[in-house]
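Usage

Read records sequentially. Each one opens with the input sequence:
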Amino acid sequence: MLILFILILAGCSSNSDQKVTLRTENFKFNQSEVRVKSGQPVAFSLINKDGFAHAFDVDAFDIHVPMPASQTQTLTFTPDRPGTYQFYCGAPGHPEAGMVGTVIVEP
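and closes with the structure output:
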């Protein structure tokens, strides 16, 4: 009986990491809104499809990740408070060109 209980618990455990893939191409992010859960790690895969540099910035969480041309960067962080926050490309002129979006951190 104890072994069955342990097996059931093992089956219920899961990796709580949330995964988000953001791509940049032609001065745009492929998603304008990302939803994640507060207090749970989030793994971002940041894929730059352009032949020039971009960045992934979320000022509310003090995040700045350079995205070199035609490369992929990874970022893992745990949002600690619910709310709606802006992400954007911090390269000069890129936010004005439309490289902005929203991270919604749900409770």
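Summary fields computed downstream for this record:
- The CA atoms of residues 54 and 68 lie 6 Å apart.
- The first strand starts at residue 18 and ends at 24.
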